[in-house]
Amino acid sequence: MGSSRKGRRAAARGNNAKAMLYIAFVVLALAVVLVIKGSTLKSRISTLKETQASLEEQIADEEARTKEILAYRDYLSSEDYIKQAAREKLGLVDDDDIVFIRREE
């Protein structure tokens, strides 16, 4: 009976060693996968940060453009612009303007 106990213990130790080796392999494989995924995510984060910076710059440009357009709209509705356009495009004059007419002979 003594030798059969030793054989079972040795077989159990061998099975335990195999199981520990399998577990170590699985843990190592999981660690490799996590490292690969981590580097992929870092790359994606970097790309997204660049995209975000570009979009924020575009937003700032569009906000500046909006301010320019609003200022131009205000100018177009001002009395000064209306008078200038009436003079240039329609040839209208104010009541107190002196008009010189050139006659061709």
Question: What topology emerges from the helices and strands here?
Answer:
Blueprint: H1 2-76, H2 79-90
What does this structure look like?
- With 105 residues, this protein is mostly helical.
- The protein has helices at residues 2-76, 79-90.
- The protein starts with a helix and ends in a 15-residue tail after the last helix.
- The chain has one domain (2-90).
- The model has no long low-confidence stretch (mean pLDDT 87).
- The protein has 2 helices and no strands.
Task: Provide tags for this entry.
83% helix, 2 helices
Count up the helices. Answer: 2
What string, H for helix and E for strand, traces the elements in order? HH
Strand content: under 5%
Summarize the biggest pleated sheet. Answer: none
- What's the domain count? 1
Basic shape: rod-shaped
What is the terminal separation in angstroms? 144 Å
Q: Stretches where pLDDT falls below 50 for ≥5 residues?
A: none
Number of strands: 0
**Cα-atom Rg, whole angstroms?**
43 Å
What is the typical, i.e. mean, pLDDT?
87
Q: Considering DSSP H and I runs of 4 or more, what fraction of the residues is helical?
A: over 70%
Structural class: mainly alpha
Please summarize what this structure is.
With 105 residues, the chain is mainly α. Helices cover 83% and strands 0% of the residues.
